[in-house]
Amino acid sequence: MATYNANTVREEARLEELANCVEERGVEILGVQEHRRVHTDQPILYHKVGGCSFITSSAWRNDAQAATGGVGLMVSPRARRALRRVQQHTDRILVADFEGNPVTTVMIREEARLEELANCVEERGVEILGVQEHRRVHTDQPILYYKVGGCSFITSSAWRNDAQAATGGVGLMVSPRARRALRRVQQHTDRILVADFEGNPVTTVMSVYSPTNAAPVEDVEKFYDELRTAIHHVPAHNFLVMLGDFNARLGPEDAPFTYHNNTNRNGEYLSALLTEHELLAANTLFRKRMGKRWTFQDRASGMLRQLDYILVRRKWRSSVLNAESYSTFDSVGSDHQVVSLSTSTSHPFWSLREWQEGEGRGRHGKQGNHHTHHPYDNTLQEERRRGREEERGGGEEERRRGGEEERRGGRERRGGEEERGEEERKKEGEEERKSGGRGEEKERKRGGEEERRRGERMEERGKGVEEER
Known about the structure:
Residues 357-469 are annotated as: Disordered. This protein has 469 residues and is of the alpha+beta class. It has two domains: 2-98, Deoxyribonuclease I, Chain A (4-Layer Sandwich), CATH 3.60.10.10; 111-373, Endonuclease/exonuclease/phosphatase (Deoxyribonuclease I, Chain A, 4-Layer Sandwich). Helices cover 33% and strands 28% of the residues.
């Protein structure tokens, strides 16, 4: 169910466009305010608009005789068939009763969107889809199975908050082949669902949903304690994949290639879990451009964040071929990017978070793909090639930057050497000038000494001649 202030919806073209939007998005019942259609002679009117029915109570006229107000409902054919009664309680309040529960919203709970999600799973060859915050409450049964298209949707119950609004809930959507391979599904807690699938090795998939970073620290600590217990019960030889909305930011000090420059509070708890249980956040292992790292876009602010991670055991690092985020399930209306993981064991996994329209917050989902042989295996080669190209591209970029730095260093060294050479030449010249001056002085001194000695010899000869005379 949704609500809309029509204002100028009186125009037929605008009304038809509104009906088209209702049909495209699978809305069953749309409340319309201020349609400004005046029909005081009839309290309730029914209009056919496209495939929908538009039910209105009359607007009224103000002192200037301008049409004002008016409320109504635009309903789908299914909701129209379920309509039992419509009453104009006042000119501002319209009341309608429907048989059963046709009221749905533009989110994953509505059948149309759930079917679209199942179609995306089938078209893209996804075998296992983890879903968080589906908000389906069935406390009388811990696990429920639904048939959606060609897939099976397995849910553990959501819970109700203090305002009695449905909150949380995790589940799995699986293909027919994965359904046949399913050995066990366990609701470990209301935030952790664990499933084992036959294979060699056995694949254990966890769908987890963490409290937000603004939640009380006691709730976060309780969640991670329960998650540690769940991991402890998974055999060491199982291929463990955790598809989670961890509501956590990791910085470069905690993972190799992250979107954020720092780690938040939830990120510190996640980092401690990775270290304690020798886990890796697969979508932080590869050098990717920033557009391949963020997983969530806030609809209100437009801010980008990396909150969703696919965790694997460190022992499987050599089997991880590629991991990145990109938009694949746009038709479901997600505010989260898809996060994919490809492995050499033919277990490509995906991650997705659904959305809730009315409150502007995200509905959450993770999906994974597990198979041994499938036409979708052909995409593994593409994933491998893309991963290698990303690595080569990153390496070439590193080498280019390194070459530029080396060239800059070489220029700086040459400049320094030239400066040092000039200084040395100046010093040598100065020393030569100094040594040359000292040499001339010595020469003058030696010349003076020789002149004196010659003079003395001449005097001695003169004296000898005089004596002989």
